[in-house]
Design brief:
This protein has 455 residues and is of the alpha+beta class. It is 54% helix and 15% strand. It folds into two domains: 218 residues, Rhopdopsin 7-helix transmembrane proteins (Up-down Bundle); 220 residues, PPM-type phosphatase domain (Phosphatase 2c, domain 1, 4-Layer Sandwich), CATH 3.60.40.
């Protein structure tokens, strides 16, 4: 009977851990702890001197008492850790206290076992801690008002029934144990099986509920990604003597970066690059608002200062807790003139005649003042010029030592890639940033690049 029960509980523990490994993102930690709990209980049965342990070689049987003693102390810690995953509020805090107390008793008990030969002086303390914590759990599970307040899944009749069956058996076993009377093992196993299956039933419900929530969120994020992608330009405008390319690499499903082209005619166009503070859905919503706001500034596309003031005016009242940096470049190929202005954005880089110049003309980021001033820089356009606008996800990418990629590396790549096309240069930058970041480290920010070459 011991061998059968031990094998069943050990196998059940493996099954629970296996399910947890397949549902790792769905809050399946409770299944892991249930699996460990079940496996430890199964090992206790298998290592019983009257069961499988009796078939071990003599040299291996020496270690069985030590394993059984450690198992006996730590099984309370593991069981309580499983309950933590179902608890809320002060009950969760209490259970963590039980875990720390159980670990302290286990350490003292094992030390005593090694030093004195196992008199079991700390076993009563472990039993008392188990009895007190179990009593509190019974009260919380059985009373609907407390269950609604302190349990993730309240009013589960299966959990109530399993807990009561286990509690009756465990309390009886502990009380009778103080009187040095041991009830048959089968009753202990049946009580434990009732509790384990009840918690497993609730845990599986919780896992699949979380799974459905994840799937729903993924579908919504996929739709949001499609919508956000649709607001970005689906190509580059055809402007006389200009070669334009853009790269957009979001950190998550949706991003806070944004870029837009404002073509005026066959010789003139504007380029806007913006970066919303923060990440994820809130930043993406602000980026989507930028698309709408850009329409209002199209008539003044040739005036970067007016464009930035108009965008700030349109957005400042809608985003009280977030800020937006932006850079705007207007190119006039008929007059061979470039006009640049920015709102708290990293400097534009200009490659000309084998030299890289950082072009800065910054005003305040969007959302600080209602009518800030945005100074402009006017540049003469030369054949062979390369204009490079980007968001700070490029220069702030960190390596394993926490060092940022930095402006200097970007400028060096510009110099080394001056013979490359605009598209090849943008891919080179992205490749270098990926190489700078360790493979184990996720992308830390959204990345947007816009490269304009003068033919």
């Amino acid at each position: 009977m011991e061998i059968i029960l031990g094998t069943v509980f050990l196998f059940l523990g493996v099954v629970l851990c296996g399910i947890a490994s397949l549902r790792r993102r769905s809050g399946a930690k409770i299944l892991v702890w249930l699996g460990i709990w079940s496996g430890m209980y199964g090992m206790m049965r298998l290592l019983n001197p009257l069961a499988a342990a009796a078939q071990f070689p003599a040299w291996l049987q020496i270690y069985v008492p030590y394993v059984n003693t450690l198992n006996g102390f730590l099984i309370l810690v593991v069981a309580t850790r499983a309950w933590v995953e179902l608890s809320l509020g002060k009950l969760r805090t209490f259970l963590w206290g039980v875990i720390y107390a159980g670990l302290a008793i286990a350490f003292a008990g094992m030390l005593d076992y090694f030093l004195s030969g196992g008199h079991g002086r700390f076993r009563p303390y472990n039993n008392l801690l188990a009895t007190c914590s179990l009593t509190i759990l019974i009260v919380v599970v059985v009373m609907p008002k407390l269950a609604r307040r302190f349990l993730i899944i309240p009013n589960s009749r299966v959990l109530q029934a399993g807990t009561l069956i286990f509690a009756v058996e465990a309390l009886a076993s502990n009380v009778l144990g103080w009187a040095e009377y041991r009830i048959p093992t089968i009753w202990d196993s049946l009580g434990f099986a009732a509790l384990l299956l009840a918690i497993a039933y609730v845990a599986v419900q919780l896992v699949f509920t979380n799974e459905r929530r994840w799937l729903s969120m993924e579908r919504e994020l996929a739709i949001a990604r499609q919508i956000q992608t649709s607001i970005l330009p689906n190509g580059s405008p055809q402007i006389e003597n200009l070669r334009i390319t853009a790269a957009y690499l979001p950190m998550t499903e949706v991003a806070g970066d944004f870029y837009e082209f404002l073509p005026v005619d066959a010789y003139r166009m504007g380029v806007l690059v913006a970066d919303v503070s923060g990440h994820g859905v809130p930043a993406a919503l602000i980026a989507s608002m930028l698309k709408v706001a850009v329409r209002s500034v199209v008539p003044c596309a040739s005036d970067p200062s007016a464009v930035l003031r108009g965008l700030n005016r349109a957005l400042s009242e809608q985003m009280p807790d977030q800020f937006v940096t932006a850079a705007y470049l207007f190119l006039d190929m008929e007059e061979r003139r470039a006009i640049y202005s920015a709102a708290g954005h990293p400097p534009m880089l200009l490659l000309r005649d084998g030299h890289v110049e950082a072009i800065e003309s910054n005003g305040l980021v969007f959302g600080v003042l209602s009518e800030p001033d945005y100074p402009v820089r006017v540049l003469t356009i030369h054949s062979g010029d390369r204009f490079f606008l980007y968001t700070d996800g490029v220069i702030e990418a960190e390596n394993g030592k926490g060092q940022p990629f930095g402006n200097a590396r970007v400028e060096q790549i510009m110099l080394e890639s001056r013979a490359r096309t605009a598209d090849q240069f943008s891919q080179k930058v992205l490749g270098e940033v990926r190489g700078w970041r360790p493979n184990s480290m996720a992308q830390q920010d959204d990345i947007t690049l816009v490269v304009v070459d003068v033919a």
